[in-house]
Each structure stands twice: as C-alpha cells, then as structure tokens.
C-alpha cells in the first residue's frame, strides 16, 4: 500500500502547458504516473503531445474530473494565480491537491487553507512550496526524482525537498512506501501529524523517517502525537543545528526566536517521545538501518 497517492491515482496538472508544468509532466509520465490531462482555461480544448502521449487540456478542474475521473491535481501555477487555482480545485472537490509552487504569499495560503476547511476538508492540500508525493513503483506526483529509490517499508515525511531526496537515496536499498514532502512555508496544508497518522495506519509501512527544521513548533506537536498515537519506530532529523539565532534559513518558516523553534529543542522533544534523532542526514539513515534490522 501507500498513503495519499497510489497506482489508482489519476492525475491532472494545473499549469501543465507552462515550462515547469510541461517539464515535470514529462518526468512524471516517465515515472509511470497516470496523468490524464491538464488545466489551462486559455488553451482549453487543445491537446498536448508529451513524448508520444496525447493529453487533453481542460478549462477547469471540474471539467477535467468529469471527463477523466481525475482524483489528484498537481499545481504548477505561478504564485500570483495559485490561490485561484487551489480554490478551483477545492470547489471541484478533488481528493488531493499537491501545490508545488513556491513564493505564494502567506495570506493566499491562509485563504485557501481556510477555504478548504470551510468546505469540509474534502480536498487534501499538500504544500505549498513542496516536492510533492512519491510512492515508488506506483505513482509520482510532483518534482521528486523517480529513480533514486525503490519500494520498501519506510514512510517519509519531510519539510525539506533536498533532504527528502538525500534520505531516499541513502536508504534506496531498503526502499519506501511513500515519501511526502509537506513544504517549509509558515502555512501548509498536510502536516507531519497527518502523515504520521496515515503511516501508522498503513500495514506496509514498518518504520517512519520524519524530517523537520528550525522554526515554529510543528515538530514539538508531532513529538507529542508520536508519544500518544504512534506504535511504529520513528527516526528523525532536524535541519538547522548550526543556524544563527534570529536568521531565516532557506524556508520562510525556518526562523527561530530565543530558545523556541531551535533544532536542539525539537530534538529534545522528539527524543522524549522515543524518537531516535540523527545529527546529520547520514546518521539519520544509519539509525533507520538499525531500526529495520531489528524489526
């Protein structure tokens, strides 16, 4: 099994006809993702040839869903128009909207997050500013490389795209059920806790890697959830052990203030919940190997 994305997922790409959308549509198709069309109101009714695959372009997400049975959208729309694109996906009640776009104003993210909640959370939002979801051997929706790992028993949830790729590569011989990049913006849809819950319920996921970073209290809240609800072994890594106080590091959400949000405070909270925390990505991979060997 896999969480959120599997071999039955039918994917549309909002912004498919743009340069980034087209590049990653091509890459996702090569990975075996079932892409059934794209959305661009200005090019509705046309078809786009992607390496011999003819993909229809629809005016709206709702039209694409009605015509193709799509249940997942990957959003490559530019930041200024992304709020409208996500709200359109929510209105269409698509099951999963993976928002790859970075640079979306926080106010816009708050708006579409609240809108999804007001509509009953029928659409799961992943992101924004994330690498997407990869379920090796089943489907790949986003920008995660498809050839760096295989299928296996590890579930991964991460704020960081590049650290996601590194852990997947370092543990490629063990393999993954699903990797979920949740993004590092201050406001995101799917959280560490959402993924931990799903991995706990997935019978094929035997152990979980959780990658966090400095700033905010998401990792502390995840630690509390692990302590009370997760029975599977969890290995963690916090990016930013050497970050200077008060400085934003890469992601918009990665800023610390005093002792709150530091890598050390997050490490302590996770270890108190029984999570083994690596000081480097390679050490984290080694800890996971030990966990798998002892299962």
UniProtKB/TrEMBL annotation:
CoA binds at residues 17-20, 43, 100-102. One of its GO terms (molecular function) is succinate-CoA ligase (GDP-forming) activity. GO terms for cellular component: cytosol; succinate-CoA ligase complex (ADP-forming). SMART domains: CoA_binding. Its EC number is 6.2.1.5. Substrate binds at residue 165. Pathway: Carbohydrate metabolism; tricarboxylic acid cycle; succinate from succinyl-CoA (ligase route): step 1/1. The active site is at 251 (tele-phosphohistidine intermediate). SUPFAM superfamilies: NAD(P)-binding Rossmann-fold domains (SSF51735), Succinyl-CoA synthetase domains (SSF52210). GO terms for biological process: tricarboxylic acid cycle. Residues 4-104 form the CoA-binding domain. It catalyses: GTP + succinate + CoA = succinyl-CoA + GDP + phosphate; succinate + ATP + CoA = succinyl-CoA + ADP + phosphate. The keyword ATP-binding does not apply. Heterotetramer of two alpha and two beta subunits. Belongs to the succinate/malate CoA ligase alpha subunit family. This is Succinate--CoA ligase [ADP-forming] subunit alpha. It comes from Glycomyces luteolus. The gene is sucD.
